[in-house]
Amino acid sequence: MSITVEFGSKAAADAYRDDHEEYICPVDDDRRLKTVAFMSDTPEWLLDQARLDAEEGRAEREASAGQATLTDGERDRIDFSEGRANVPHARAVKGIATDHGVDDWTAHYDPTLTVDEHREVMERAGREGGGQRLDANEGRQAARARDAARAQQSSECDHAAGHCENGDPEACEFLQNVCEYNEKEVNEMLPPVASDGGLKSGDPGPDELTGQQAGAVHRSMGGYAGAVDSVESALETLREEWSNAQQAAKAVNSVRRSVGYEPQHFDRLEELQAERACHRTLHIL
Length: 285
Hints:
Blueprint: E1 3-6, H1 10-19, E2 35-38, H2 44-63, H3 72-77, H4 87-99, H5 117-127, H6 136-165, H7 169-177, H8 183-189, H9 211-258, H10 267-278
Antiparallel strand pairs: 1-2
Region (Disordered): 54-80, 125-151
């Protein structure tokens, strides 16, 4: 004699037929139906599991008309990798919770329970005023969110530390305001600042400078060094082009003299030579 179990959908019934073919009664079972006929020697654990899944499937089918749409926040609070948790299951439970006036239904959602078993849970929660507790699932998600936030902040702090060491004042300020570095720790990260405003390796930095001020000095010195490099490069280019201009002018007048012409006066070249003489002495403010 076979043992029958009625599932909530034909798909669920067929899944049991395919997964446990050796326990399906070939005489009594009809694949056209949602009721599966198991053989009499089917293990009790399998029958219990089938009955539980079938009960849940029927409950979800009955509650499908009253299923409620899940919000993004509710989806985030449910770990769909646990137990029976899936979107139809959660929507059915939310529908039951709504019927019982439970607003914070995710606090009472249990992925190990069937939809039908949630009826008693939500009924009790409704009598108690909806409840205000956080369930274990939400607590785990909150902990994971905190861990992720801490990891993100740690990465940002490491990034800011690198920039602060290179004299970025905003990065130094970020370390103090967000990463909880104290002023002494920030100052120790910066290269020492000499009394004349320059940077000398090994010199102690002035205690009166804050991390932001020391960072600004260091950054300005970096700008100074870059500008000096640019000036040196520009002067080298100027010397080369000046020599080229003089040679070209001499070549022109050499040709003019060879044919009896008067030498040409290169007024602009002479003006530039005068300007060059005036700017040989540079004053640093």
